[in-house]
Input
Amino acid sequence: MVGLVGYEYVRDCARLLKENGLCTVLVTNGTLCREPWEALLPLVDAANIDLKGFTPAFYQWLQGNLETVKTNIQLAVEAGCHVEVTTLVIPGKNDGAEDMEKEARWLASLSPDLPLHISRYFPRWHLELPPTPVETVYHLAALARKWLKYVYEGNC
Output
């Protein structure tokens, strides 16, 4: 499981950018095997990593793996990469207050300065659930602020 489209291309470009004094910023779902991720991290200055939910059941619904994403967030933080996390809140799927509190508490254990973007879902292509109520996003953001200094509401 590499999980990054064009891994070699991204790695090679990041290396060239670094050699020329430029920065690399990744936006990723965090689903990479550990070895290629660790090889890429020294070349990455910042990453926005999607933490799509905080339960194994939610990640199973997505056909992903929560522990892989959590490990990759932790590795990026430990590598000194500027990390920001984004969670897209989907009604009835990952919008529980308890799950958000667990997520924020875990992120704060890595660093209370780690920015978290809580974004509102809108129906697209294969998923026709109603949009996330704005109030839900604001409520979850308020809960996350108990542990994290930088929490941002998105798509409201």
